[in-house]
Amino acid sequence: MSGFVVALTGGIASGKSAVERRFEALGIHAYDADVAARAVVEPGSEALAQVARTFGPGALDAEGRLDRAAMRQRVFDDPSARAMLESILHPRIRTWLRDAAATDRGPYCILSIPLLVENREHYAWVDRVLVVDAPEDVRIERLTRRDGIDASLAAKMIEAQASRERRLAIADDVIVNDGDEAALDAKVAALDRRYRELAA
């Protein structure tokens, strides 16, 4: 196992992916919960079969893959359906991430987990929590530009997640990403040095 595991999180449009890319450029493996979420429902998987049994054939597209758009709509409108889907997927996502960390051979590794605050008890085994933080107005501006949506929808998307305060409360380290993306280079490099020392 990578002797040292850093969980990376942050709210939507805070810049997690940009931070993740910079760690990878320094030779550190980053394992993403979003990638895990796709991997665990590949055709032929037990998770996909269970989703189809639970939600019916409408959960799958014409190729027999998970119909993400249909499921997103379904769980968005129905909290009990969302809880049911999460009960199928989340334990498998956690296992996938733990297995990835266990087989990693780097000095340390990153687990990118957007919903870490909501699932913190399941990741008690990680060594550090790194939060990428940005002010709400900056995130709204990024979301409207990135997704072509209006500011009120962007604000609703931010509001649907754990609060900035809750994320900062679990942080061991914080990167404030409120300016130019190039400013992240020095911040990530400094944390990389620190994590290598801690891992040693």
What does this protein look like?
This protein is α/β, with parallel strands linked by helices. The chain folds into 2 domains: 1-29 and 104-200, Rossmann fold; 36-103, no CATH class. Helices cover 52% and strands 12% of the residues. The protein has 9 helices and 5 strands; from the N terminus they run βαβααααββαααβα. The protein has a 5-stranded parallel beta sheet, with helices on both faces. Helix 3 (46-55) runs antiparallel to helix 5 and helix 4 packs across helix 5. The longest helix has 25 residues, at 79-103. It is globular and about 50 Å long. The model has no long low-confidence stretch (mean pLDDT 92).
List keywords for this structure.
2 domains; dephospho-CoA kinase activity; 200 residues; 9 helices; single chain
List the helices and strands and how they pair.
Blueprint: E1 5-10, H1 16-25, E2 30-32, H2 33-39, H3 46-55, H4 68-77, H5 79-103, E3 109-112, E4 128-133, H6 136-147, H7 151-159, H8 164-169, E5 173-176, H9 184-199
Helix pairs in contact: 1-9, 3-5, 4-5, 6-7
Provide a brief overview of the structure:
The chain has 200 residues and is of the alpha/beta class. It is 52% helix and 12% strand.
> What summary fits the major beta sheet?
5 strands, parallel
How much helix, percentage-wise, in residues?
A: 40-55%
Order of helices and strands: EHEHHHHEEHHHEH
Principal-axes geometry comes out as: globular
**CATH fold assignment of the largest domain:** Rossmann fold
The helix/strand class is alpha/beta
What amount of the residues lies in strands? 5-15%
Looking at CATH, the homologous superfamily of the largest domain is P-loop containing nucleotide triphosphate hydrolases
- Indicate the mean pLDDT: 92
Q: Helical segment tally?
A: 9
Q: What is the β-strand count?
A: 5
Domain count: the total is 2
Which CATH class of the largest domain applies here?
A: Alpha Beta
What CATH architecture of the largest domain do you see?
3-Layer(aba) Sandwich
Strand order within the widest sheet?
A: 2-3-1-4-5
| Low-pLDDT windows of residues | none
Straight-line distance between termini: 14 Å
Query: Cα-atom Rg, whole angstroms?
Result: 18 Å
Subcellular location: Cytoplasm
GO molecular function, one term: dephospho-CoA kinase activity
Keywords: ATP-binding, Coenzyme A biosynthesis, Cytoplasm, Kinase, Nucleotide-binding, Transferase
Protein name: Dephospho-CoA kinase
